[in-house]
Every structure is written in structure tokens, then in C-alpha cells.
Specification:
Elements lengths: L2 H5 L2 E11 L7 E7 L6 E2 L2 E3 L6 H13 L1 E5 L5 E8 L5 E16 L11 E5 H7 L3 H13 L10
Helix pairs in contact: 3-4
């Protein structure tokens, strides 16, 4: 499907939630959640509400779906496309703008806690878990931007 087809239909926002981790070679972990119906691994995402900015909407989705709060970057890191399943068996093409959320708090309770699983994963594992190719690329791009800096030896 061409990108133009996706532009004609749904527009969603997502939060790429991350936190520092001294246990990981990359120095960070990424949060994935399960989708409501197919139970595939995804980022917290949803439809934008008009009274909020896209970034604020992404932060709201992260709270509602995963119980995390933090600092949201006001500029998207990227966009991916997917086909959202409909109840009638069809699909709605959607474009998803992704905003980076540096998680500062994981709540004990949140609105969709009983409906979803969450997992904190190393970036490489999170990338392998998601099925949308465009989302994989957004995660890879995030990893390149946040890779640990190698120190150079003077010589």
C-alpha cells in the first residue's frame, strides 16, 4: 500500500516510552504493550483528541494504556503506517506519529491495566517483537540517535 493511501485515512499518535537501564548494553529499555484485540506488541497509541497537542495526546495514551508518565518530546521522532483492524473484518489505513517519552514514573494502577500486558525490553528485543515494519524502523532510528557514545583514545 502506498503512503498516499494512508494519508487519506486515520491519523494516530504513539509514545515511544524509554527509561535508563544500567543492565542493558544500550543503556536503556523500551516499553511495549499488547494491543487489545490481536495481543501483538505495540507502542501505546491512539486517536488524537483535538484539545491536546499531538505530543500531549501521545503522553495521554502512555498513561492510559501503560501507566507511565514522564517528559514528552514535542517533536515526533518519526511516522509509521499500519492497517488497523475493524470490527467488520476490514481494515483502516493509519499513519502514526511517534513521540519520545522519557519515563519518570511507573504507576501501580492505570485505566487499561487489566486489558493489556506491558514489557520493558532492551531496544533490540523490542524492535524484534513488533510486527509493523515501519515501527521497527522508528525504533532502529531511535537506537541510532541514543547509542552510547564511544570514547576515542588519543594517540
Amino acid at each position: 500500500m502506498g503512503e498516499a493511501l494512508f494519508r487519506e485515512h486515520g491519523k494516530q499518535v504513539a509514545a515511544l516510552c524509554w527509561r535508563p537501564s544500567s543492565k542493558r548494553a544500550s543503556g536503556l529499555e523500551v516499553l511495549l504493550i499488547t494491543s487489545l484485540n490481536s495481543k501483538r506488541w505495540i507502542l501505546p497509541k491512539g486517536w488524537a483528541e483535538p484539545e491536546l497537542t499531538p505530543a500531549e495526546n501521545a503522553a495521554r495514551e502512555a498513561f492510559e494504556e501503560a501507566g507511565v508518565t514522564g517528559r514528552i518530546d514535542p517533536q515526533p521522532i518519526g511516522t509509521y503506517h499500519y492497517l488497523k483492524d475493524r470490527k467488520d473484518g476490514g481494515g483502516t489505513p493509519c499513519a502514526v506519529e511517534v513521540f519520545v517519552l522519557a519515563v519518570t514514573k511507573q504507576l501501580d494502577d492505570w485505566p487499561e491495566k487489566q486489558a493489556r500486558q506491558i514489557a520493558w525490553l532492551p531496544l533490540e528485543q523490542a524492535t524484534a517483537q513488533v510486527s509493523e515494519l515501519g515501527l521497527r524502523q522508528v525504533l532502529k532510528d531511535f537506537g541510532k540517535r541514543n547509542a552510547p557514545q564511544k570514547t576515542q583514545r588519543a594517540g
